[in-house]
Known about the structure:
Radius of gyration: 18 Å
Bound molecules: zinc ion
Strand content: 5-15%
Largest sheet: 8 strands, parallel
CATH topology: TIM Barrel
Amino acid sequence: MNSTVSAHSELEFFDTHCHFDFGDFDKDRETLWETCRTQGIRQMLIPGVQPDQWPRMQLLCANNPGIYYAAGLHPCWLEGNIESHRRNTQLSVLSEALRDQLDEQYCIAIGECGLDQYINGDADLQEAVLGCHLEIAQEFDKPIILHCRRAHNQMLRCLKAFPLKNGGILHAYSGSLEQAEQYWKMGFYLGIGGTITYDRANKTRSAVKKLPLEALVLETDAPDMPLCGHQGERNSPLNIPAIAGILAALREESVECIARQTTLNANALLRINERQLG
Ligand SMILES: [Zn+2]
């Protein structure tokens, strides 16, 4: 890639958070990934939501070059996986299962895991499950993909209890500059997605202007989090260049510069080149 290119097809983007294994993509997954690659979206990380789904993700990555996955139990998927009354036994089963996944070729991170006070969940249980992921990330020195809604103080406290050498990504970052800076100081990149396409997201839009580009990665969270003007539609990894375009306009930088640095950031955090994955 040289600095004079302008066509998106010559840029290289990384969608660091796309639930590409979800049923929403069953009908057109393979052709959609081919189209993504022609548009410059050449790498993707699929976050795990529950153990049942992990083996399928391994297969999906093996068949589609440039796709990797993370193994995790999402706070919105605790039901059916971890129950309060059997918590200790189930957490040790989860911990074993996560350890096993780390031997799989395309499993390059832990997550998505975290805290969600937007849903009616058991906050203590969520914290115990998050702790289980953090412990493994710390022990195996793996990056972690965090989900956090309305629980940043609790999250920052948990992260202080498990300092990670290699941090991770705070997915779907939305909030104040001060919060973003606290995560960045602890080694967390901020996942920038559809939120910044909404005018009403003033705080987030002004924060992403001021953060160093070295702290940002791009994501769609597809099939969720549609861009402004597309509410109710399936979101797609094909929207990554549009998110990059809006970030570029907000920061008064070129799309080339955004694509290059965010892709470098994601590859450095996830240590993909070291692993020589297809
Ligand atoms: Zn997600």
